[in-house]
Amino acid sequence: MKKYREQYSRHTGRDWSAYELSYEQRIRHAAAELCSVVKSASSILFSPDDHTGRPPKVTPEQKAVILLLKEIFSLSNRKMSGLLSLFGPLTDMGICYKTVERAYSALPVRLIIHNMFVLLASGAGGNLTGDGTGYSLSITRHYRSMRENGNCIKTNPDHRLFIYAFAILDLGTNLYVAYGVSMKSEKDAYRDALRMLDNMVRDVESIRLDRYYGSQSTLDDFSEGTKVFIIPRSNTTIRGPPAWKELTGRLMDAPMEFLSEYYRRENSESQFSADKRTTGWRIKQRREDRIRTAAMCKGTWHNLFNMTSG
Predict the structure, then answer these.
(1) pLDDT tens figures, 104-160
(2) Are 177 and 200 in contact, with CB atoms under 8 Å apart?
(3) What residues make up the domain containing 203?
């Protein structure tokens, strides 16, 4: 791995003018498509005859848009409700901050956001990479700095510091095809993402995971036709099932070619970094169901911004 970095790793510069132009175009496209995607996601749940009784003051579709806008602008509940009141003549919508907070746990809103993620990711898949990260629940704790400093980041059920997210990325389109969230550990978020992956992608050609998943048991999570690129742990042996022997054989026969594929997983890290710069590294909710909804909003915004990259 050291030899690969020295001889084959290339650090390319970034054309900032092209980057800014691309970013502006993605924002414009995401803004233009936001309402139509929400409407499509809602139509799966509701039909015109489903709404009975007194019409709600704010529809589930409107609540979903409110939460998505709140997350991308990193606003508090009070500021979001205040902005809606400020633009009342344009939006014809005025709600209190409690309505914004309760929208995170409303089942129709959560289903709309989930369906948005699924609709945006439909058709992607094949060559994948996966990685996990953490979002802080406290303004005084930053996930990356604590992890790099070697501090303990395990959560206390009575005083949680972080929640964990695991995203599986399609390398061809930069879309998330599966997204898992856990209050316990990154491995639990990984299992949650795999359950979504089973319903999203029929045939996974290849996947890349970091050294935390460098054990034989990881191969059981994928079909025999999937090429898995992981770095075996230092105490591993060649003994094991045929799939494990095939993986170690590929690594031993052509290590540089294997590592060139393995290091494509850096795309996951760069995409998480972009997500945190766009929607923030912190989640302000406290209830578990609302925390999960806020995390799913971040994954949905990622797909909205990258829906034309393929």
Answers:
(1) 999 999 999 999 999 999 887 789 999 999 999 876 555 555 555 555 555 445 457
(2) yes
(3) 124-284
C-alpha–C-alpha distance, residues 226 and 39, integer Å: 35
Residue-wise pLDDT tens digits, 258-292: 999 999 998 999 999 999 988 988 998 989 999 99
Non-local (6+) Cβ contacts of 210 within 8 A are 131, 230, 265
277 part of a folded domain? yes
Q: State the Cα–Cα distance between residues 133 and 269, nearest whole angstrom.
A: 9
Residue 86 reports pLDDT greater than 60: yes
Half-sphere exposure of 127 (CA within 13 A, CB side): 9
Distances (CA, A) of 186 to 133, 152, 183, 201: 7, 14, 9, 22
| CATH number of the structural domain spanning residue 176 | 3.30.420
| Residue at 99 is within a domain | no
